[in-house]
Amino acid sequence: TVKSACTNAMLIALKREHRIAFLLGEVFQMKSPEAAEIMQITDVNFRKKLSRARLRMKEFMNTNCGVYNSSNTCRCKNRIHYSIQDGKLN
Q: Which residues lie closer than 8 Å to 23 by C-beta, 6 or more apart?
């Protein structure tokens, strides 16, 4: 639950087209031709969107995640407490 909340926050930080490219390329591990066809764009355009999505994710993690960058305050413990209260974790 905590992991999915963090992942959701990262994905929401992306523009829609970059979010789709990231999901197709990174999560579903699709090859450029197939992913480009789904997005109805060229292979080159898909690869560029995926590259930008990866960069934005890295930037997001670097400025927000205490696990990725130890100088950031980790908010995981706050999410865990909330998830326990909400009955999603025990």
A: 11
Per the listing, tokens 């999915």 go with: 4
- Please give the average per-residue pLDDT across 52-57, as a whole number: 94
Smallest Cα–Cα separation from 79: which of 15, 16, 7? 7
Please provide the size of the chain in residues: 90
pTM of the model: 0.76
CA 42 – CA 1 distance, rounded (Å): 36
3-state helix, strand, coil in the chain (%, to 5): 70, 0, 30
CA gap 3, 57 in Å, rounded: 15
4 burial level (CB within 10 Å; 0-12, 13-18, 19+): exposed
Backbone torsions φ then ψ of 13, nearest 5 degrees = -70, -15
Task: Tell me the mean pLDDT in the region 82-88.
Answer: 67
